[in-house]
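Exercise 7. Given the encoded structure of a 86-residue chain, write a plausible sequence.
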C-alpha cells in the first residue's frame, strides 16, 4: 500500500512468515537508506525485535511503536508522523 503525506511514501507489508516479513522490510528499508531518504518503521514490539536483529547498526532508522502512531486513529497518526520530521 502506498500513500502520500508530503513527499513521504507509506508502505504496508504483510508476510506469510517472519522471514518473508523481515526480507521484504529489510529490502525496502535499505533501498530508502541508500537513496538518502528518512526511514521510520512502525510496528509491534515483537516485529521490531525481529527487524532490529536483521538491521543492526542502522542508527538512521527511526523505530516507533504502533500504538504511539496509530493508537488514536488516522488524524493522530498523521500528527505523529509529522512530529517525527519526515
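Solution.
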Amino acid at each position: 500500500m502506498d500513500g502520500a503525506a508530503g513527499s513521504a511514501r507509506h508502505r504496508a507489508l504483510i508476510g506469510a512468515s517472519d522471514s518473508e516479513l523481515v526480507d521484504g522490510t529489510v529490502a525496502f528499508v535499505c533501498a530508502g537508506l541508500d537513496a538518502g531518504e528518512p526511514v521510520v518503521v512502525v510496528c509491534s514490539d515483537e516485529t521490531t525485535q525481529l527487524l532490529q536483529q536483521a538491521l543492526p547498526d542502522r542508527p538512521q532508522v527511526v523505530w516507533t511503536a504502533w500504538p504511539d502512531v496509530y493508537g488514536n486513529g488516522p488524524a493522530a497518526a498523521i500528527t505523529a508522523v509529522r512530529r517525527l520530521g519526515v
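Remark. The chain has a mean pLDDT of 83. Students should compare their own answers with the one above.
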